[in-house]
Design brief:
By secondary structure, this protein is mainly alpha-helical. Helices cover about 55% and strands about 10% of the residues. A two-stranded antiparallel ribbon has the order 1-2. A hairpin with a 2-residue loop joins strand 1 and strand 2. The chain starts with a strand and ends with a helix.
Length: about 100
């Protein structure tokens, strides 16, 4: 999915949010194109799959599950960001 931000078309997974929460934990891949183990297992758990089921799932299917999850999260984050901005706009209108 592509959105326009600052007059530039960007993929939703590339958009920087103004509002976020951080636990101070940084996930990183072991190499380019690799999925961090924490993220992979978190997605496996969300899909109610055992480790054995996940390992039996073909590689491309696992990659698609991860990609769909990342995109869904990015879309959800953008929606939350829009709600926060709308709330801020409404609050500033009330102060005038």
């Amino acid at each position: 999915m592509v959105i326009v931000q600052d007059d530039i078309s960007r993929n939703v997974t590339e958009v920087e949010l103004d509002h976020s929460i951080s636990a101070g934990i940084h996930l990183r891949s072991l190499g380019k194109g690799m999925v961090p183990p924490f993220e992979e297992h978190n997605i496996r758990i969300e899909n109610k799959m055992s480790i054995q089921e996940w390992e039996k799932t073909p590689y491309m299917e696992r990659a698609i599950i991860i990609a769909v999850t990342r995109t869904s999260r990015a879309i959800q984050n953008l929606g939350t960001e829009a709600e926060i901005r709308e709330t801020d706009r409404n609050a500033s209108k009330g102060r005038r």
